[in-house]
Amino acid sequence: MAAGPPPPFEPGALPAFREEGFADKFVRKTRENPLVPLGCLCTLGVLTYGLISFKRGNTRHSQLMMRARVVAQGFTLAAMLGGMVVTALKARS
C-alpha cells in the first residue's frame, strides 16, 4: 500500500465552541435529566425535616425521615444511572 500525501489542514474548517458557564451547564444538564435535581431537592428536604425533628426531640419521626432520606438518595442514584444509560444509547445511534 502506497501512502499518499496527508490531507491539507485548514484551521478555518474547525467548529467554534463557545465558553459554557456554570448556569448554562446546569440548565443544560437539568434539561437532559430532570429527575436528578428533583431527587436532590427531595433528599435535602427530607434531611432538613429529619434534623428539625431530631432537634425537637421527636426521635420516632426523625428516624422515619432518615429512612425516607435513604429512599430519596436511592431514587437520585437510580435517576443518575438511568440518565447515563439513556445518554449512552443516544450516542450509539
From TrEMBL:
<keyword id="KW-1133">Transmembrane helix</keyword>
<keyword id="KW-0812">Transmembrane</keyword>
<feature type="domain" description="HIG1">
    <location>
        <begin position="7"/>
        <end position="93"/>
    </location>
</feature>
<dbReference type="GO" id="GO:0097250">
    <property type="term" value="P:mitochondrial respirasome assembly"/>
</dbReference>
<dbReference type="InterPro" id="IPR007667">
    <property type="entry name" value="Hypoxia_induced_domain"/>
</dbReference>
<dbReference type="Pfam" id="PF04588">
    <property type="entry name" value="HIG_1_N"/>
</dbReference>
<protein>
    <recommendedName>
        <fullName>HIG1 domain-containing protein</fullName>
    </recommendedName>
</protein>
<feature type="transmembrane region" description="Helical">
    <location>
        <begin position="35"/>
        <end position="54"/>
    </location>
</feature>
<keyword id="KW-0472">Membrane</keyword>
<dbReference type="InterPro" id="IPR050355">
    <property type="entry name" value="RCF1"/>
</dbReference>
<feature type="transmembrane region" description="Helical">
    <location>
        <begin position="66"/>
        <end position="89"/>
    </location>
</feature>
<dbReference type="GO" id="GO:0031966">
    <property type="term" value="C:mitochondrial membrane"/>
</dbReference>
